[in-house]
Design brief:
The chain contains eight helices and 17 strands. By secondary structure, it is an alpha/beta fold. It has a five-stranded parallel β-sheet with strand order 2-1-3-6-7. A five-stranded antiparallel β-sheet has the order 12-11-10-14-13, with no helix packed on it. The chain has two domains: 2-140, Rossmann fold (3-Layer(aba) Sandwich), CATH 3.40.50; 146-254, OB fold (Dihydrolipoamide Acetyltransferase, E2P). It has helices spanning 10-23, 36-44, 65-69, 87-92, 104-116, 127-140, 190-194, 243-254; strands at residues 2-6, 28-29, 51-55, 57-58, 61-62, 76-80, 96-99, 146-151, 154-159, 163-169, 172-177, 182-184, 202-204, 209-212, 216-221, 227-231, 239-241.
């Protein structure tokens, strides 16, 4: 069985592939894809893939965008960090999903469901199904407005509008405010934050930074087609957007 994992968190992709090999030792894997643009290009080539594991929130947008441009007749199992905004959509379209962190018994159940399929059925191949899922997704999605920050013997709410960027540092997710105060959050990854925050206001610049639109001072052209994003206040490390994401970022910034 040839499996394709589309996931922008390297650790999550590695853990998933390891779990899959426990249940399907003979499985082989296509190279992991971590963004919508590359996924569209790869799937357009009609690869010999038996099953796709697809994260909903990728670094350059919501993965449903893939199905708008590419007809996919391969069974898909979605992965998501939260179950409150898309479960009904999956059920309506008989699409399986796995809630992160993925539990072994849930993965086995999803694979058994896949094995019971006698014939591949087109998944989300019609534009009507796409529109239904997108509408339901948007209707159910509510974005996080506050984080609770421990302070002495109490919890203090931190509004997302005060946050200039989130960064992943030594395994910890930190929020840095407009006055350069740093807070450690309980969230474990930027991928987890991607499901919580309004994508029109926060952008996943790279694996280390998720930045607020309000904090962007300007953007400089960097080496090899990359972009350097300058923020207020200024972080210790450069915030660099890759060449592959540069156009998507510029479109997001001017939207």
């Amino acid at each position: 069985m040839e499996i394709l994992i589309i996931e922008d968190e390297e650790n999550a992709a590695s853990q998933l592939s390891a779990m899959l090999l426990e249940y399907c030792p003979s499985a082989s894997f296509a190279p992991v894809i971590d963004n919508i643009t590359d996924a569209k290009a790869y799937l357009s080539s009609k690869p010999a893939i038996d099953l796709i594991f697809l994260d909903i929130n990728l670094s350059d947008g919501i993965s449903f965008e893939i199905f708008k441009d590419v007809k996919i007749d391969i069974p898909v199992i979605f992965t998501t960090a939260y179950d409150h905004y898309a479960v009904q959509a999956f059920e309506l379209n008989s699409i399986d999903y796995l809630l992160k962190p993925i539990r072994k018994e849930k993965l086995v159940s999803a694979l058994e469901k896949f094995r019971r399929l006698n014939n591949r059925q087109p998944i989300l191949s019609s534009s009507m199904a796409i529109e239904k899922i997108t509408a339901l997704l948007q209707a159910q999605m509510s974005y996080k407005q506050n984080f609770l920050i421990p302070y002495n013997n109490r919890l203090v709410p931190l509004n997302v509008n005060e946050i200039s960027w989130f960064e992943l540092c030594n395994g910890l997710v930190k929020a840095v405010t407009s006055n350069h105060t740093t807070h450690i959050l309980e969230e474990k990854s930027l991928d987890e934050l991607s499901d919580l925050l309004d994508p029109s206001m926060f952008y996943r610049a790279n694996r280390q930074y998720m930045i607020s639109r309000k904090a962007i001072r300007d953007v400089h052209y960097y080496f090899n087609g990359r972009l350097q994003v300058n923020l207020i206040p200024e972080p210790e490390d450069k915030v660099v957007v890759s060449k592959a994401k540069a156009m998507h970022f510029k479109n997001w910034l001017k939207a």
